[in-house]
Structures are given as C-alpha cells and as structure tokens.
Amino acid sequence: MMLTNLGRSFARQWAGLLALFLVLTSGTAYALAGSNTVFSDDIVDGTVSSADVADDDTVRALRGIDILNGSLIAQDFAADSVTGAGIRESSLSTVPLAAQGGTGRYGYEGACNPESTNWLRCSTVVLTLNRPGRILVIGQVTAMVESANEWGDGGCRLHDGTQVIEASRTYVKWDEEDVEEGRNHFTMTAVTNVLPAGTRAVAIDCYDQTGATTYPLARISAVTLSGQ
Asked: Which end of the chain is more exposed for a tag (fewer CB within 10 A), N or C?
C-alpha cells in the first residue's frame, strides 16, 4: 500500500516537473485546469500584443463589453486616431471656444442726417459676449445729396460699444451722378480686438462735411466670435 502511494506521488511530481520543463523551454503552458480559466495572473505583464487579437472584420474579438467602463483614457489612443465616424456626435457638449460663436444681431435705422462734422449715431445693435471675445461688425450705408446741393461729402465709422474702430473710418464724396449710378452705397467691415464679457451696443456713426449730405439708410450686423 505504501509502495502504491509512493508511486502515485512520484508520478504527480514527474508530471509537474515535465510541465515546468515544457514551459521553461518552449514558453507554452500545456496544463491549465478546466476551460476558460485564463486569469490576469496567468499572463506575464506586457506579453499580449496585437497579433494575439483577431483582426478579421467579421470577428469582433474585443467589444465594448470586454472593456471595463471608464477604463480607457486619452493615453490609450494614438494622436488623431479617433475619427468622426468613431464618435457619436450627440454625446459631445459644446466646444468651449465655440460657445458664443455665431450669435448675431441686426439693426437698421434710416434718415440719419448729421448736418455737421460732429459724429451722429446712425444705427445701433445690442449683443452680449458670454465670455471675452471678438465681434465681427458689418455696416452698410447709403448716402444722399440734399436736394438743394449738387454734391456732398462726409464719412462714417464703426464703434465697438466702448471705443471707435479706427480702421473702419470711411470718407466719401459724391454728387448727383454718383447717386444716379448707385455709387453712393458703401460697406464697412471690421473685427474688434478681444473685448471683455458683457452687453454692448455696436454702432455706426456718421458725419456731414459740407452740410449737404444725409444718410437715408444705415444698417449694421454684428456676430460674436471666440476670443482666440
């Protein structure tokens, strides 16, 4: 009986030594108990590579359910590797710098008649910057010569609600022929410097150099932009 037990013990030890020998010499484990029993501690850290995972499009070897929720972080993705097709757009929030982009307002006023070289506010539009940013301002003006005169001159400018946008100053001179030919319409366009958050009145100011000019149309459009 004792010899039988010794024989069985020796056989188990021999089988264990043989398995250890095979692992050490070939790197292959031949004896994992049961099925579907490979655990994390059965795999040497860093040894599973891309070649170990099926890459046939018809075989989805790794799926969302195989990955612990929230376990993937930015460092797990190569730069620029996730494309538009891989993102559910409805899950995205507003891009911070685009939060106020595209908010626009339009204002119109007519019969603006400065009658002097003093600047007169001819059109205004009020809008709000939710955060520091810029404003795209577009002003369109029509100038006319008063009926008792053959020609006139003057000018207009844009105002960001705090100060004059100097680059927008436009000086014009026209006569009745210019009016007949439609050359008495002009446009001013400017992008402001970065302005602090808050509500402001963006405007068009005009003046009359000779007292013979009137502005029957002055309209302004303003669109908020990001601060960059």
From this structure: N
* 4: DSSP letter: H
In terms of average pLDDT, the best of 83-97, 103-117, 124-138, 145-159 is: 124-138
Can you tell me the distance from the alpha carbon of 143 to that of 213, in angstroms, rounded to the nearest whole number?
A: 7
Sign for the CA dihedral angle at 222, 226, 227, 228 comes to negative
Name the burial class of residue 33, with classes exposed (0-12), middle (13-18) and buried (19+) by CB atoms within 10 angstroms of its CB: exposed
pTM over 0.85: no
3-class SS shares of the chain: helix, strand, coil, % to 5: 25, 35, 40
Q: What is the DSSP string of 184-213?
A: TEEEEEEEPPPB-SEEEEEEEEEEESSS-E
